[in-house]
Structure prediction request, 724 residues.
Amino acid sequence: MTESSVIDEIKERLGPKVIRIDQPLPDRAFIYVEPEDVLEVVRVLFEDMKGRFATATGLDSRDYIEVLYHFPFDKQDIVVTVKTRAAKPFPEIDSISLIIPAAQWIEREMHDLLGIEFRGHPDMRRLILADDWPEGVYPLRRDYSQRREPPGPGRVKPVSESDSGESAEEKEKGEVSES
Amino acid sequence: MSLKLKALKKSPWVYHVNTGACNNCDIEILELLTPRFDVERFGVILVGSPRHADALLVTGICTRQARPRLQEIYRQTPKPCVVFAIGACACTGGIFKDAYHFAGPVDEAIREVDPNAIIAYIPGCPPKPEAMILGVVKALQAL
Amino acid sequence: MSHKKGHRCLIPVGPYHPLQEEPEFFQLYVEGETVVDMDWRTSYNHRGIEELATHKTFDQVPFLVERVCGICSASHPLAYVQAVEDIGKIEVPERALYLRSLVNELERIHSHVLWFGLAGHFIGYNTVFMWAWRYRDPILDLLEMTTGSRINYANARVGGVRRDIDNAFMPEIIKGIDEFLPPLDMLIKAVLDDPVLHARLKGIGILTKEDAIKYAVAGPTARASGVPIDVRRDDPYAAYDLVDWDVITQEEGDVFAKVVVRLLECVEAARIIKQCAERLPQIDGPICAEVREIPAGEGVGHVEAPRGETFHYVRSDGSPRPVRHKIRAPSFNNVPSFKASCIGYTVSDVTITLASIDPCYSCTERMARVVDRKSGEEILTFADLVKLSQEKTKRIKEEMGV
Prediction:
């Protein structure tokens, strides 16, 4: 049907920015781009071609961190995944959350779990991991996953009575002063 | 038997704490309140604050983030109180026992605060509402 | 609560709050009664399933992912197995397709009715809560009869389904659905006619179409804002392209529209279930394709869960375990839309607006007191109560002049 038209349009609009396109199934496509082109590619897919942003996946392959942005095109019945890679051990990539507000939270999650730094993210606070989780330990990194030891036991120290009333900022301040 | 314990057994007011459950146990607890099971017949009422509660219904694995909060909630509950660890996760960690965000089963977290805490286990994934009622009845009989 | 921005006040909601079943921490910044900003902190429920999944074999993972969320315990495994079937290019037998649709639609009814009850409870309308949950019970019985468990179904499996449903059960399923339809109809009519619900839900928590796209919301939340997306139609899986059904959309984007979308979807789900149950006895054959090993590759599976699109990405390197398994539950996208839908409304409207996206948390603790003031008085029959309730609604209608 129209599956190929999405791919054709991507080729036409993005041209040399696309390194390679894989289409293992008619309704699944993976396009490879350089990390510095991510913003432009995402903008074209989301704003110009009206793709829906499903989510982004971060993953640790052996030599680099991969970031995948998934865009289902509902009318054309195809899921396009934009793949890019960032260097280890301090991966950095441009934040797409200014183009797609929904990406803010998934980028915060990837920051927590994989330690990816998103340049230009408006609010890069901890989202998923516990307050007492040590900085710099990323549970989805390969080195962590193979070791499989949680860093230290859960915090035993009692929380103050007004715990639920504290804002996250206050809590963070409190922890800094304790350490 | 102390007067307090006698009063507690008469109509246990419960507070529900989810420490990282998948919702299964939670909706089964809610199910207990609705017309089919309607545990209010027996004087079991869910209350909005641990300070009003006689029993804590704890569901889910104890995540790192939730563990100190659970301990705080236990401290706020008037004693004597009964802690019900509901579901496989709360009892042992269940399928999540190897997860990195798991900070020990519920009983360990509670015992750290109060070594003599009364803890009842209701296993199952999720336990059926009937099993929960049975567990509560058995625990109250054992007191 | 000192927050040094004008006259702002901070209202913390959570992590353990009577309004929430699951621990979740919302911070409401208010000026007077009006919410001007909001923040969201999660982690209390974070278990690290994505990491755990990489230590289980492909066949074990469905049991893990059905515990992502107890209410979507048919959708998550299905999305996962579809992703794996993508990698292995596995053809699923026809009977399994129908069985998958059957269980998923039963789950949808149970979830939507559950949500509807809770929504009623959130606005202090406990009658709705009790009624909705009462009519939901027979659906759970059907699920127990067909899959063996009220909630964790262990239904999907790479290549098909794990267990067959005996054809002898099909008439029972049809009968159960037929018995569910009149009460559902009553609930729908009650919602559409009830001036109290209109007053409380219409025009509240509006999520515009533009915001719905910007925040990439999914499922009923999107469909109530006029974004006609539904994975069941857009990327057909299971037997959804083999049966006859409609996608429900509303344009308003307010809480009321979300209620309407969910309730009407129950009707569609009932249609799908009946068609599946009628056709299944005529379809023989295996319920699971033979799967030897999963080759290296990557796959994407998405499924329309009751709350919206649940999205799974799986990568395999040819070993018996997935290398990476990404799970995106619909609430992850839906919850942040509070930035668009809650701001500018009053504090009292925030609860129902947050609840309207069905964010996998619900309320247990506040329903407590249905104090029996009538004890000792004459016992009212069911019909009396219905009559009383109708009279009250009529009275409110007159007072409101509608």
Confidence is low (pLDDT under 50) at residues 152-179 of chain A. Residues 3-152+166-178 of chain A form a domain with the Beta Polymerase; domain 2 fold (CATH 3.30.460.80). The CA atoms of residues 57 and 140 of chain A lie 11 Å apart. The two ends of chain A are 61 Å apart (CA to CA).
